[in-house]
Specification:
Layout: H1 2-17, E1 22-29, E2 32-38, E3 48-54, E4 60-65, E5 76-80, E6 91-98, E7 102-103, E8 108-111
Antiparallel strand pairs: 1-2, 2-5, 3-4, 3-6, 6-7, 6-8
Amino acid sequence: MRHVLAAICVLLPLAAFAEPPEIVAAAYSAGRVSVTLAHPDTGWDHYADGWQVELEDGTVLGTRVLLHPHVEEQPFTRSLGNVVIPAGVTQVFIRARCNVTGWGEDRFVLSVE
């Protein structure tokens, strides 16, 4: 038990210093959402691993999984096709994720008019 507590005491401060991905820009055109992220990827141990498109109430319209780190490519842009925006919706929200801190609290507002 003592070893488990020691490991937690070591790992918790590291997670506190982990920065969430920053959504630098986003665009929507004909069902395709493109998102530019910046994140201090260090390799497989800490990298931006996804983003999602949400309605205001948090309903997820689509998720883009990022399968590898982008250490040498910052910021970087990836797209997601076939995103269906419900009629009457004029803005959606982008939320980013990293494999250490999980889904970020901040959301980027994207106009889809």
